[in-house]
């Protein structure tokens, strides 16, 4: 099994309108991952992008919303596992990266 990083981006956790973060839906999704879930990670809010030391930080419309680590047999399975993530109902997206090297 290979490890994959799922980065959550652009959720509407702080918005007064539109879909809101539902902790129960996230808990249900995490539970559905079963043994594939290596690290629930954490949700985040208020991130900024720092494109360079010279220009400083800027707010990104697809700001980092959190991360998790999963295991999957290949990239396609990692995508299938991520497709049911509640972030999509919160107007967000995911980015998936294959992790190399030893865990820990």
What assembly state would you assign to the polypeptide chains in this entry? Answer: single chain
- When the domains are counted, the total is 1
Q: CATH class, please?
A: Alpha Beta
Q: What is the general shape?
A: globular
- Looking at the structure, the CATH topology is Alpha-Beta Plaits
- Look at the helices and sheets and give the structural class: alpha+beta
Q: Main β-sheet, in a few words?
A: 4 strands, antiparallel
**What share of residues is helical?**
10-25%
Strand content: 25-35%
Unreliably modeled segments: none
Distance between the termini: 15 Å
Cα-atom Rg, whole angstroms? Answer: 15 Å
Topology, pairings included?
Blueprint: E1 2-9, H1 23-33, E2 37-43, E3 64-72, H2 75-82, E4 93-99
Antiparallel strand pairs: 1-3, 1-4, 2-3
Give a summary of the structure in a few sentences.
With 104 residues, this protein is α+β, with helices and mostly antiparallel strands. The chain is built from two helices and four strands.
